[in-house]
């Protein structure tokens, strides 16, 4: 018999050792149970938040579709994930940032529904310019590359909206060049889809964002 076994047999009752072991196991079980319950509560909270977010996004899309029902029904604009898309050929000529009469009239028709939508939700309108991946043609003295072309087109649309009545503080321009295609640039139809301007309602910045001071 080992020295340890001898000490246990002489000094420590077996039931005491068994009791200590069971107490330790119960403690571990309680810790695991607390962790599982906490994880389930956290998971339920995350699922509820995600469900609420998706419901809000769905409601947002429905409201925007209702506001733009006329232009959408006429096929003059598209709406995908809250982004209003306008074909570049409707607004501009090839490699041009000069707004065409048809495009100007279309933008004018969007002012009132967009103003109502933005006011109701206290949001801003981001105007984004996009191009295909073909390089600017040689001899074009106006734009060095697609970044510059997309930026100028976004600015042109932004200024046209403001001229037509959109409050300047509710709209801003951004440029993406050929970096976010929605179709393949390997064929003419895809490149035509990529030459576009999008308008997307976005939340106003808070807590020290642009135009606001942090407190």
UniProtKB/TrEMBL annotation:
Q: Which CDD domains match?
A: OmpA_C-like
Spell out the Gly residues composition-biased ranges: 206-215
* Gene3D superfamilies noted in UniProt: OmpA-like domain (3.30.1330.60)
Q: Which UniProt keywords apply?
A: Membrane, Transmembrane, Transmembrane helix
Its cellular-component GO annotations read: membrane
Residue ranges of domain OmpA-like in the record: 79-205
In residue numbers, the region (Disordered) covers: 182-215
**What NCBIfam families does UniProt report for this protein, alphabetically?**
PRK09040.1 (NF006547)
The record's annotation in PANTHER family points to: LIPOPROTEIN YIAD-RELATED (PTHR30329:SF21), STATOR ELEMENT OF FLAGELLAR MOTOR COMPLEX (PTHR30329)
What is the designated name of this protein?
OmpA family protein
**Per the UniProt entry, what species is this protein from, by scientific name?**
Parahaliea mediterranea
């Amino acid at each position: 018999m080992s020295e340890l076994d001898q000490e246990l047999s002489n000094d420590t009752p077996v039931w005491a050792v068994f009791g200590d072991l069971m107490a330790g196991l119960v403690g571990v079980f309680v810790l695991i149970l607390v962790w599982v319950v906490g994880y389930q509560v956290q998971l339920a909270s995350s699922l509820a938040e995600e469900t609420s977010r998706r419901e809000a996004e769905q409601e947002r899309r429905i409201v925007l579709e209702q506001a733009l029902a006329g232009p959408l029904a006429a096929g003059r604009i598209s709406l995908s994930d809250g982004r209003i898309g306008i074909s570049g050929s409707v607004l501009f000529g090839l490699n041009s940032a000069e707004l065409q009469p048809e495009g100007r009239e279309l933008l004018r028709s969007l002012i009132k529904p967009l103003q109502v939508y933005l006011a109701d939700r206290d949001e801003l309108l981001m105007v984004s310019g996009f191009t295909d991946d073909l390089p600017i043609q040689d001899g074009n003295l106006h734009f060095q590359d697609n970044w510059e072309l997309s930026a100028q087109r976004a600015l042109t649309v932004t200024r046209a909206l403001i001229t037509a009545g959109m409050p300047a503080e509710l709209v801003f321009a951004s440029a993406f060049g050929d970096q976010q295609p929605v179709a393949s640039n390997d064929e003419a139809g895809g490149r035509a889809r990529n030459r576009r301007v999008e308008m997307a309602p976005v939340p106003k910045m808070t807590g020290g964002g642009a135009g606001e001071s942090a407190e």
